[in-house]
Amino acid sequence: MEVWGFRDLNRKRTRKLELPPVDMFVTTADPVLEPPILTVNTVLSLLALDYPADKLACYVSDDGGSPLTFYSLVEASKFAKLRVPFCKKYSIPVRAPFRYFSGDSMSSQDTSPQFQQDWKKMKDEYEQLSQKIEDAAKGSIPCELIGEFADFMNIQRRNHASIVKVIWENKEAGDANGVVPHLVYISREKRPKHPHHFKAGAMNILTRVSGVMTNAPFMLNVDCDMYVNNPQIVLHALCLLLGVKSDKDCAFVQFPQHFYDGLKDDPYGSQWAVLHEYLGRGLAGIQGPFYGGTGCFHRRKVIYGLSPYEYDEEISGKLSDQNLQKTFGSSMEFTKSGAQILSGSKSTSSSPHNLLRSVEAANQVATCVYEYDGLDLWIDDGGHPHRTHYPRERLEINQLHADPARISGLRALRRACDDDPA
Q1: 199 is in an annotated binding site
Q2: Residue 19: CB atoms within 10 Å
Q3: What is the pLDDT of residues 207-253, one digit of tens each?
């Protein structure tokens, strides 16, 4: 039995307060190819991590703009209020419920009557959640497209306004037992004339939206079918990110993917053992391996373009109003959050975030024109690109930018738009 004295408890509490916030991103694009139950399990595994809940926020990007995905996440947030306390009370090693309940999970845990009773309750609740999502997928969502679902009425996957919904907001400070982190749903704006850049575009939106909402200095991104199998993964990553002498020495930390239910001895190499166990570790000695696209913790200021070789004077130059607006766009909230990250300052507010107040700013930075300085980009019948502050006022691009490289870049954007099925 572990006995904590007053001084030990106070030190433990202080260490928790010193831990940095982390924003977690989950990306999904199609409720048919990527069934919402997969996304739900990934999200549930993130919400139940062994880390102070008031320092975590989970953002789900849905490029499908699906009311089914949104509905599934709403129901999952209700289940999370039961699941998270259960996981932390009994130190459950596997936090994704479909994997936990698929094996003989009870035999390796506490055999007390209370645990068995709670285990059965969790299993029943998860089966009910799965059934609700399955029924909804068959077209029987138990709600009309009103209220929170009104934004999905007559929605077209490739042509709709941005949708940002705060599904659950944690208003409790500290890490009280059973507290669930923030959960936010995002479906970025899509327009036929604008390139969307697939998952990379979704990651840009997630970075901006989280910047105006919680603005954590570190970001984790995972695919919707990549649940977290280690509840202490954040602490392990921060040991590397915070353990270096200088921020310049470590921009990101990523964890290899492992696939469950594979064939014995992996005859087809589906576990990518050579890549992860040998090439990845070998490349760590020469500036590190390339970014694998999932299971990665990013240092936000690196994503914002801060070079490790810039000096304080150069950083100060980037913090001028003109440079901040050039880099972060017209959103005052996003510009302010970017300055905070680049300067390395911590939030001066000691109260929990009020996410609902940030929804308007989040919708602004989730538009498809925001990356182009708020200007409208369109192509005429002859294939010539145009940009204007007002969509109805069509000006030749040469009147706005005489730089040929800039013009050719816009033509490249047009080609990307033609090739982008998202």
Answers
A1: yes
A2: 15
A3: 999 999 999 999 999 999 999 989 999 999 999 999 988 888 888 99
